[in-house]
Amino acid sequence: MAENKTPLVKELTKGILKENPTLVMLLGMCPTLAVTTQAMNGIGMGLVTTFVLLGSNIVISALRKVIPDKVRIPAFIVIIASFVTLIGFLLEGFVPSLYDSLGIYLTLITVNCIIFGRAEMFASKNGIVASACDAIGMGLGFTMALFLMGSIREIIGSGKWMGLEIPVLSNNPMLLFIMPAGGFFTLGMIIAAVNKLTNKKPPQELGCSGCPHAESCGKAGDCQ
Amino acid sequence: MKTMLVILLSAMLTDNFVLSKFMGICPFLGVSKKLDSASGMGIAVTFVMICATLVTYPIHHGILVPNHLEYFDTVVFILVIALFVQLVENFLKKCVPSLYKSLGVYLPLITTNCAVLGVTVLNIDNNYTFVQSIVNSLGAGLGFMLALVIFSGVRKKLEYADIPETFKGVPATLIAASIVSVSFMGFSGLFS
């Protein structure tokens, strides 16, 4: 367990830029595309996911020696689903507007690859403190990516930003950007921009590192 | 009959799961390189969606609602789906080896596909009857397959295209998906 200070800071910061779950590792595409019609929704979804990730990472890391390897996938799923149910209650009670705008995608956090991927790759192998740092870093990276997506789509698509009207743009919003097609387009552009800025070769495939079935997937031939 | 048709077609076209609800993006982008794997994945997803609905609907209305435990939906559904996929896989392996050969490799990938959990939860949220739920699942599955098959054709063309270095790979795929999604927008307003 990494108890000295430097590695913990590294766990915390790696998720924000170097291993950003959405823009670099390409995980959790569904919520990234679905809820980012507004910047505020992006932040909400990001923070909710961070909460679930933090909770599940801590519990899974605490139970990592108790859960038998063979049933780890169902065990992880139950832990994650419990936290999703919990945050669902909290949101419904305290922030009903966010609860309504996230809708079914709140339930679908359960099957978000990022959470499962961190459980499988990090929390099941590391101590509680390191796992918590990892969860916060990854969650913030996800939140920032969603906020960026949401801002671009909201500014271009509806001429507003966080509810504030932007002159000129609000008279000629490009509706396409808040439609599903605009989501795919914006994400493609952002990933291309990240590649350009970091001078990296763009990824050829989606990140499957978070996929619980990455091993059996090899058999399918196409998904790497 | 007419409502059934509307549910089927709107789940397939206007509210296409992949292109307008963004569910099942991972297999959509991951398994759409070749036509045969795209159709195999599509059939497997349709099959699991219908089976999952057959199981989760009675559980919700028969066990959870009478006991006021609706809030357990997420936990129960995901577990049931995971168990059920495993069961189907074993059953096919033993009893219908030919079907297992063509679908088997895709089955384990589906457990955590958000489209499957999504359709079972949507069926409950929309207050569909049992038959309507099954029709909705069928439509969702067929829509998923349609999107995958169409997109596999688009990607084949994309392979020979001269794309700028920065856009090669995932960015180009996403932008192509955006164009396919625009074409599906043509269906909107079909049933209003």
Question: Can I get a quick summary?
Answer:
The complex is a heterodimer of chains A (224) and B (192). Chain A has 224 residues and is mainly α.
Number of domains of chain B: 1
Largest interface: A-B, 56 and 56 residues
H/E series of chain A, N to C? HHHHHHHHEEHH
Which percent band covers the strand fraction of chain A? under 5%
Helix percent of chain B reads over 70%
Strand segment count of chain B: 0
The assigned structural class of chain B equals mainly alpha
In terms of structural class, how would the helical and strand content of chain A be classed? mainly alpha
Looking at the structure, what is the overall shape of chain A? globular
Question: Over all CA atoms, what is the radius of gyration of chain A?
Answer: 18 Å
Q: Could you please describe the fold and organization of this structure?
A:
The complex is a heterodimer of chains A (224) and B (192). With 224 residues, chain A is an all-alpha fold. In chain A, 62% of the residues lie in helices and 2% in strands. Chain A contains 10 helices and 2 strands; from the N terminus they run ααααααααββαα. Chain A has helices at residues 5-14, 29-34, 39-62, 72-94, 96-102, 104-107, 113-123, 128-158, 180-198, 214-217; strands at 160-161, 164-165. In chain A, strands 1-2 form a two-stranded antiparallel sheet. The longest helix of chain A is centred in the middle third of the chain and has 31 residues, at 128-158. Mean pLDDT of chain A is 81; it is low at 215-224. Chain B has one domain. Chain B has 9 helices and no strands. Chain B has helices spanning 2-14, 25-30, 35-64, 73-95, 97-103, 107-110, 114-125, 130-159, 170-185.
Supply database-style keywords:
heterodimer, A: 224 residues, mainly alpha, two-stranded antiparallel sheet, 2 strands, 62% helix, disordered C terminus, B: 192 residues, 9 helices, globular
